[in-house]
Amino acid sequence: MPALSLQHLQMFVVLADQTTLALAAERLRITQSALTHRIREAERRLGVSLFEKSGRRLRPTAAAQILTDTARRVLADLDEAERIAAASSEGIRHVVRLTVGNYNAYHWLPDFLAWFRDRQPGIAIEIEPNAADAALDRLSEGVLDIVILPGARPVGLADAVDLFDDQLVVAVWPGHPFEGCAHIGARDFRDQVYLTYSLSSEPGFEADRLWAAEGASPLRKRNLGSVDAICELIKAQAGISVLSRWGISREIAAGSLIALPATQGGIAVPWRALVSRT
């Protein structure tokens, strides 16, 4: 699950746009001490340094700049989705609260909301981007109505609706030595920096279907806690990863990332909508 919340993404953008910590705190409507705490919280979650003191200003590190660029795109996607959702607010009888786990993959949302509004004008959809960290817990508690997730079907938590089949792919930058390979195996990762958003092993993903299946795993792992940060570091040639093809489809289409099959037969992963029973 992503390590950073929407508040952290907003923080990166505001800090980049304001000249001092005081102005940034004022823009965010929090105290300077609260802003400092939020920065330290993000650094602790990611395990990296994000800002350096330069007089009265904070200078972003390379990691913070990567996250800032990503935050601008994610917030723009959410702003557009909220605009469309607000436009359909008249005559609303029900509200459905939804989040996407693991990936900030909301590029599909504006078109989906427009399509859904035409067919179900009495139902509004609210996006909960901050809920991904504990999505299944919030679903069982009734805080969320739908969670979209890749991977195995959970038992007893919710009703699962199969959406589509996806592939786990090895994501590299254009020009990487792997580019053009027919497929990538576990042993190919031995000399690579492997970027991940979680060090915990989930069934159905690379831990058991690549590393365990082939008896090898990366020697150098770096946990970034965020798929968006992983994509930016791959583009910066700082490592490679195993990710959902659908989750990074925009980067693949733009040519900024190259997707290669993981193993000779590929690794299929289903996406499902988990629907609350409450």
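(the above was protein one; protein two follows)
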Amino acid sequence: MPDTERGETRMTNPTPVDPISALVHGGSIEVESSDTVQDIAVILTENEIGAVCVHGPEGPIGIASERDIVHAVAEGVDPDVERATDVMTFELVKLDHEQPIEVAAKTMVDGGIRHLAVVEDDKVIGVVSIRDVLAVYLG
């Protein structure tokens, strides 16, 4: 499994016009496409996050979220056998790290998505949730 070390880079009180990178909780926490559902659940729990970017041989290929895991377990999958690619969401929506938070909010609402990959120079630097974005608007 990839390293899950975290650093704090979060801005204290970001506003909707601040860059989306202000909401990144540190480095990107990622899993490999071959990691099991159990591995992903442990990483989510240990890091107190709701989603991770899934990487394949050519780079990021999707997002695995708590919701994906809950659906898979409800359908009866074996978390020790099934892999990230069996349960993840393949649509990886990316937003450049310099885009304002308000663009992230619109992208998420318009697309009906809960997680965005934040990228810098085509490298995922973090995953931001709709909860993170909503907190900016609610103070």
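Reviewer note on protein two: The longest strand covers residues 59-65.
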